[in-house]
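YM 10:42: DEAD/DEAH box helicase sequence, as discussed on the call
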Amino acid sequence: MKFEDIKLSPNIMSGLQDVNYTELTELQEKALPKILEGSDALIKAAPGKSKNATFVIPALAKIDGKEEVEGTTTLILTPNSDEAQQIDELVWAAGYHAQVECASIDLDGSEEEQKASLNDAPQVIVANPGPLLSVMQDLRFIFRHIDYLVIDELDKLASLNLIPKVKNILKRVLSEHQTLIFTSELTDEVEAFAKDNLEDGIAIGFDENGVPPMLDKPPTVPQDISQGYIYVPNRMKITTLMAHIEESPNERAIIFTASKRGTDRLYKVLRKNNFKSTSLHDKLSDEKRAQRFANFTNGDVQFLLVGDLSATTMDIDNVKQVINYDVPEDPDEYRYRANLVSRGKASRIVSLVSKQDRNDINKLESELGQSPKELDLPEKVQQKLEERRKKKKESNNRRNGNKQKKQQQKKKKKEMELPRPSYEKLSGGKTGGDKKKDKKSGVIDMLKNLFS
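YM 10:58: structure's back
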């Protein structure tokens, strides 16, 4: 694909010829059309000229297309001075015919020159975050006209601990703008930053589909499905699940658990009760995962058990029921799960709420537009719960009866004991005395009694 195949002004085409750019690279073929349309984007790209041209060309095209340019409209943040200077040179060379002015505020420049460059308000500023933030703070400077923002090599900025400075710079950009983020790899920090700073963003270069789920805004919960939750009695979660699915025996359902261990346990229970099921978890190979998913979508099994995987990884929308065996902590995950359900009041998402899940369901109720409603315990569970209460009551009665019986036996035994003689009736009394004195005293008393 050649640059003539995309719509660029004569000034920009002349500039590209000056720098010997004639054909688009693979990266540019994927990215330029989307960028020129004005989309926010997260783009995977290795450092080099191809990457730099991918964001410089749209910047020049945007500036050249304006009748009047007021102040700095393009800001490019990059981690090191060499990269900043290379980008600056490319902007000057390719933007020569469009009369685009550019300044570099980097680690190699003097502070006074950088302050002068910022105050001169060139159309493009290429900067390292540290020096730019320092100058902006000293001058109390605010960008009011930025409409095109590039954050280059975000993964490297993160590794250099420059993300906080980037965020502080962005707080001083007050205008609406298109945002492009370039990175060599997708780390957790890059993903979180992109999610916070891209509006309706797309991703380029990460997978065949082009748009990874992390950039998708979570969907709203469909208004035409039923939402409910069941408060589960202590140690009766599996019993409650089985009673619930037995009340709708022919429905296909996806059951989400928090771990592989949870799916393994439920698989054994379902198989024991003659229900066909299969499981997905992050330990499976791609081939096995695809096969098991196909078994469910083809109707070969009734229940798909999902452990420790997000609903965003599943492309299905025709199940009648989603069951949260474990309530998700993230409301967005709940929304994604709800969107797996077919539309209509006959379809539903049901959560089993144990004592440990109360905080999670309260959080869902506060954040969702349409709150789930509490459902009655299945009749079978109510019966078992009543049986449990009766057994507990009988056990308590037996325990209390045995306790009373023991107390009665103890009392009866005490009543049957012979009275013990007091010290006064014993020979010698309380003070005792020697054996000789006791014997003499006893004979005299006997004689007195005999002749009385």
